[in-house]
Amino acid sequence: xxLRTAACGxxxxxxxxxxxxxxxxxxxxxxxAAAPQAVQSVLEAELDSIRAAGTWKGERVITSxxxxxxxxxxxxxDILNFCANNYLGLSSHPEVVKAxxxxxxxxxxxxxxxxxxxxxxxxxxxxxxxxxxxxEREDCILYASCFDANAGLFEVLLGPDDAVLSxxxxxxxxxxxxRLCRAKRFRYKHMDLNDLEEKLKESQSSRLRLVVTDGVxxxxxxxxxxxxxxxxxxxxxxxxxxxxxxATGFMGARGRGTDELLGVMDRVQIVxxxxxxxxxxxxxxxxxxxxxxxxxxxxxxxxxxxxxxxPPPVVGCATRAVELLLASNEIAQSMxxxxxxxxxxxxxxxxxxxxxxxxxxxxxLGDARLASLMADDxxxxxxxxIGFSYPVVPKGKARIRVQISAAHTDEDIDxxxxxxxxxxxxxxxxx
Length: 431
Ligand code: PLP
What we know:
Blueprint: H1 3-18, H2 22-25, H3 37-52, E1 69-70, E2 79-81, H4 94-107, H5 115-118, H6 122-135, E3 139-143, H7 146-157, E4 163-167, H8 172-180, E5 184-188, H9 193-202, E6 209-214, E7 216-217, E8 222-223, H10 226-236, E9 239-243, H11 258-261, E10 270-274, E11 285-289, H12 291-300, H13 302-305, H14 312-327, H15 330-333, H16 336-349, E12 360-366, H17 368-380, E13 383-384, E14 386-388, E15 398-403, H18 410-426
Parallel strand pairs: 2-13, 4-5, 4-6, 6-9, 9-10
Antiparallel strand pairs: 1-2, 3-11, 7-8, 10-11, 12-15, 14-15
Helix pairs in contact: 4-14, 6-14, 7-8, 7-12, 9-10, 16-18
The structure holds pyridoxal-5'-phosphate (PLP).
The site of pyridoxal-5'-phosphate has 14 residues, from α7.
């Protein structure tokens, strides 16, 4: 590759697929391949169809750190943030940030290696131990993300003689992970125990069976019926897996998750979760479960074997977050009242809020364009919320997903409800 090509940069080369590189336009020889016309037409048509459907996902640019009050490029002053998964407000917690800085200084920016070559530091082992302790499971393995943890689990655990029974609304990363494994697949209706039982009967002849569900479903904030799931799993000799990304740190009396909330910590065998939401919000995911499974994952799980170790600052931040939660359940409990304040006031104002007591509060609107327009109007009133539409949620079920954080004040919540009332009236959603 010539220097001149390199100077165009990766972004420019990528753009070159859609339009010529500026250097090429300036009359010099084009080093960057333009897309053949046929490819360009296909891409443009696809992009146009997304715009036409009103499902285009723009990205707003935040110019401050994550928190309940942020600065957003193009908007004046302080903006109230109600769309982060920063459930416990730990993303910018001073102790969490300090631990990240200290880990950066002591252990460097990164390992330049996967774990099994020369990428395991004492801080990785320590975090794995703390997470296993937090979830009260035998062992833990870290990944670069929970997406990776979900991509790496099923293929290792389940073969062609086995079966996986998965809730139809499970997270995309679970669906992708299951696609990678060779087990027989059974998809049961969302949170439908009767249908799950049917599928358990159908899969009787399998060697191993794994029931797979999100603990909390992120688009609706609804909690999986884990007690019923565990009862059925035990009756039919199956194991239970839960994805706790939207539960770890704050569901249950000590924030251990939906398994704690529903009293089934000793009946759910495998838990995957993220460090990228309540636990400091940086990045990273993990699996906790039986020691033999975790050992097997270290030997065979492809996203673990073939991807870089978690960077020390990320490990430092997450470790401090877990330590804070192990030391006290105060933060975990601080959110419930705020969540109920928002849900009750919005319902009284005439809005439909999906889910029950979870800090994910989906304001149901139906129409994709309406959700997007209302979110834009909310930002004009100083409140940052996001409209979700197909394919993230089913067609006709567009919504604005509001997420409450322990760091929000009552005043923040009241201001947001007022802004919803104003925009809801403007768009005819409420009278
Ligand atoms: N599982 C669920 C339920 C999620 O909501 C997410 C993130 O959006 C993931 C997995 C992936 O987590 P991560 O961001 O750590 O890859």
